[in-house]
Amino acid sequence: MSIRPLHDRVVIQRLEEERTSPGGIVIPDTAAEKPMKGKVIAVGHGKTLDNGERRPVEVNVGDQVLFGKYAGTEVKIDGQDYLVMREDDIMAVFEG
Q1: Which residues, other chains included, contact 16 with Cβ-Cβ below 8 Å and sequence gap of 6+?
Q2: Tens digits of per-residue pLDDT, 35-65?
Q3: How many domains does the chain have?
Q4: Model pTM score
Q5: Which InterPro entries match?
Q6: What does the pLDDT look like over 2-13, one tens digit per residue?
């Protein structure tokens, strides 16, 4: 199933972070925080401004992004967990 978010919303799949501390201790799932880094899976067409023009979304499918710890709404699609959030909730795009 494919998904197309509306307006300036973005669908993100969380990227798993390293589960081992610098000292080599494995961190269990119950103690680990949810990652704040993810991959953009789908983007909407953009935000409609007050004058009727549409401002396109600045992130693209495949971008790796940084977002707030409590940003977005968690959804499950075909057994996969995703986040749906507004573009404004994305703080940065990883480059390089």
Answers
A1: 35
A2: 689 999 999 999 988 998 999 999 999 999 9
A3: 1
A4: 0.79
A5: Chaperonin_GroES, Chaperonin_GroES_sf, Chaprnonin_Cpn10_CS, GroES-like_sf
A6: 889 999 999 999
